[in-house]
Predict the 3D structure of the following.
Amino acid sequence: MRHILFVTLKLLFERKRQTLVAIVGVSIGVGAFIAMASLMNGFQKYFIEQALDLNAHVTLKVKDQQDKGKIIKKVYGEDVYFHVHGAKPRDLKDKIIDYKFLIQRYEKDKDLIGIAPHLTGQGIVRYGTVDKSASLVGIDPVLERKASVIDKFVSNRRLDLLITDRDSVIIGKLLARDLGIDETGKKVLITTPNSVTHLFKVVDFFDSGITMLDQTRIYMNLKTLQTILNRTNEVNEIIFKIRDVYRAEQIAQRINLETGYYTEGWQRAFRNFLQIFKIQNYITYMIVFAILVVSAFGIFNIIMMTVLEKKRDIAILKALGYEDREVIKIFVLQGITIGFLGACLGCILGFGIQEFLASVDVSVEGIVRTKGFALDRDPRYFVYGVIFALTFSVFAAFYPSYKASRLNPIDIFRSSA
Amino acid sequence: MSSIIEVKGIHKSIGDEMILRDINLSVKQGEFVSIIGPSGSGKSSLLYILGLLDAPSKGEIYIEGEGISFSDVHRIAMLRNHKFGFIFQFHYLLTEFNLLENVMVPMIKAGKKRQQARERAYLLLEKLGLKGKELRRPFQISGGEQQRVAIARALANEPLVIIADEPTGNLDSKNTAIVMDIFGALHREGKTVIMVTHEIALTEKTERVVKMIDGEILGDTTNPTED
């Protein structure tokens, strides 16, 4: 092996410029992969974490699950093909019957950590002359704490004020901004669809980082919302916090079977976003793949050029006793060396980009809002980057190396003479 | 003295063209053989077969009495590295390597330790009048010097036979004389040299002259002028 390394390293490092260009090409690919993977996955993980923290792992609500073909199936059997046109929705009352009993029933369930009732409704919130539509959520602060981590998102930790002061609200940070409210203590008017208008004091702000929620949501005491919506003792949603978040769908299905109410896990609730993330990941990895392919072509090009330029050297190496497989090793090893050095440099570059992105003090506002970029700095991205770079390098180097090994030294000696 | 290379009934054809016909030749230890003939006579083709760089279409080759099979690529490569030293019309020095490293390449391939190879390379270059130029690159020295480095490289593994294909073809008369003097000295040291040339004058310095025309050996004489 020493004789192969002796020639390989010499050929590689005496052609500094070409080698450097190839190494830089690979390092850009690896660096871009690490940076993009940590940025994209960081954003996605942040979104999921926030959404999971704030929203229910499993939600139970009233929803029409009527089987439109139920009667037809009963009459004609299961094997009949039919299509129901113009089925009218059932008049469903948007309330969970005997919700207190349901809460009691699931309080001791070993899969569940917390359970809390919600009453949700729409309303118009007015501050001064500014009106905004809002999503009103009535909560029981004590139970809510067990079923979500709402405290984490309430800016001044004044969730308890909803218990002591029934006419207080916690308002989404962006909604407050849109209304022009910049401090607590301000009074707002909330009008409900049943034309009840009530005056509330803003006691805190709610900042989840998820734009959609922060722009619309208002929390208030469950009893208060029941009163202003004229729905005494009613709730229309129960949220569950579960031990293993990845079993959400399974547990949702169980609760559905046990209660008959519509239930959904967080994966189904956020399926649109998760689908977007999937597409986003495809695009990211395609771009990175393209970068790595381009850098692999760089390696291919350089080794092919070396082989073409070094025909005489290859011929003399063979005359000096180097075998075909050793010639392949010489050039494949060049590819691997370029790949390895490129990967190392790429890891440094990737780490540098991560550091830079982490230090950028910028407010990102899109689906989620963060101060700076949400990064996932999983060390596995570095390992994957190195593996990709080495694999691409070996593939890129193999064909020119094989071509080199097939050179007949006699042809070279004859043509030179 | 026993034959170190022997070929029997060698034929070589490229496509439909027969370039060597029924060649029988035996070279003994310590001989200085020149193969001479006009262009296209097959002398280089024969030399490549003798040096195991090319396989004959038909016939047998024996090195130190052992038959050679070209399907055993590992053994062929080993023999090239250990038993033969090649010198060509063009020097074929590796441009990325300095002179010292060029001479070291076959020794490292043979498994010699780097330090050992370096010491011998210094010695060989000094012997061939290149002392002080060891760390230069091939393009930093003259054509005659380049060919002397190629000779040093050919001698690196103390080969059984030196195979030289028109070694003075690119040299002026002064450097030609130097190279031929080196070959003469090697011969006197007991080395076997087989050289292809088309210059009749050079054959006068060799011990034995093999004449080839149209792929056949037409004469094999011992040179009376050889010392």
In short: Residues 63-260 of chain A form one domain. The CA atoms of residues 42 and 376 of chain A lie 4 Å apart.
